[in-house]
Amino acid sequence: MIYTVTLNPSIDYIVEVEDVKLGGLNRMRRDLKLPGGKGINVSRVLKQLGAENTAIGFLGGFTGRFIDDKLREDSIRTDFVTVRGDTRINIKLKHGDETEINGLGPDISPEEADGLLHKLSALHEDDIVILSGSIPPSLGGDFYERLIGACRQAGAEFVIDTTGEALMKALVHKPLLVKPNHHELAELFGVELHTREEIAAYGRKLLEAGAKNVLISMAGEGALLITADKVYHATAPKGTVKNSVGAGDSMIAGFVGTYVLNSDPLEAFRTGVASGSATAFSDDLAVRSLIEQLLPQVKISEC
Ligand SMILES: Nc1ncnc2c1ncn2[C@@H]1O[C@H](COP(=O)(O)OP(=O)(O)OP(=O)(O)O)[C@@H](O)[C@H]1O
Ligand SMILES: O=P(O)(O)OC[C@@]1(O)O[C@H](CO)[C@@H](O)[C@@H]1O
């Protein structure tokens, strides 16, 4: 079974306005409320691809109930720890460009945190856990390490999509996959990366530090896959970008959802890129029909 972990889920409140007038009254042209948070997005796209999975993490209040209901409506299994505070609302403002205002999220008590650790300790060897997104401040910066410890003790594989120190500290535990975008990779090492060769060289450092597969996403420029012995580039399909929120999460879902079927990293890479692009070309997250339609446009070459 695949589990996605979202420590700080959100209702993504997508608001479209003609133009933003700071200090004035702005009226919405369109709005949309979606269950969000990186792991939850991964769960939704995995489900599109036919990969059964369970979404876990922390949910609370009326916002938490909205998210749980929406996931269940889509027949996604949920097993969240209920917390006292309200799950956050993240604003995604579309005004020609995309401006995001992400909430802080509720405080998580030590007892609530232990509840999640307990769920992970009960996993099995053939489980894969996808840890995605930021850590709420009340949990402490080392919370992913504690979760990874619990996964590893249970014998489960894990994938981690986070940034900075939390990502660096996870590598030694040999994640099945990490997926920074090229800006996050540059920030991780405090460098500027311009060419594909430079990006691949720094991506390789994540592999050397322990990751089994490294995906570096580069938005419309496609992505790099770095495996133990090779580096591949995939082109991104061409289309009209409607929404880039969740493109990276969709890519992880496409990769993991395919990799679990046949352990073929190249097929997984192709579906990952098509899934990311399918989300970029949609108002909501990718649906299966569009992912399948885009697959032939993804051209993979060895670098
Ligand atoms: N403009 C685009 N055109 C085509 N495909 C895109 C575009 N933007 C994103 N994608 C697809 O989605 C994948 C992931 O995108 P990106 O590199 O923006 O990830 P990310 O920064 O983690 O995304 P986010 O944080 O917004 O979810 C890309 O590798 C590509 O396949
Ligand atoms: O605040 P975090 O956890 O870093 O990111 C949360 C978030 O921006 O990421 C998802 C897109 O990847 C959205 O659904 C959600 O609002």
Automatic annotation (TrEMBL):
Pathway noted in the entry: Carbohydrate metabolism; D-tagatose 6-phosphate degradation; D-glyceraldehyde 3-phosphate and glycerone phosphate from D-tagatose 6-phosphate: step 1/2
Nucleotide-binding among keywords: yes
Top-level lineage group: Bacteria
Regions crossing the membrane: none
Alphabetical keyword list: ATP-binding, Kinase, Lactose metabolism, Nucleotide-binding, Transferase
InterPro entries named in the record: 1-PFruKinase, Carboh/pur_kinase_PfkB_CS, PfkB_dom, Ribokinase-like, Tagatose/fructose_Pkinase
Keyword ATP-binding applies: yes
Reactions performed catalytically: beta-D-fructose 1-phosphate + ATP = beta-D-fructose 1,6-bisphosphate + ADP + H(+); D-tagatofuranose 6-phosphate + ATP = D-tagatofuranose 1,6-bisphosphate + ADP + H(+)
A GO molecular function held by the record: 1-phosphofructokinase activity
E.C. number: 2.7.1.144
Residue stretches making up the Carbohydrate kinase PfkB domain: 7-280
Gene3D superfamilies linked to this entry: 3.40.1190.20
Entry function: Catalyzes the ATP-dependent phosphorylation of fructose-l-phosphate to fructose-l,6-bisphosphate.
Family label: Belongs to the carbohydrate kinase PfkB family. LacC subfamily.
Family matches, as NCBIfam families: 1-PFK, pfkB
Protein name: Tagatose-6-phosphate kinase
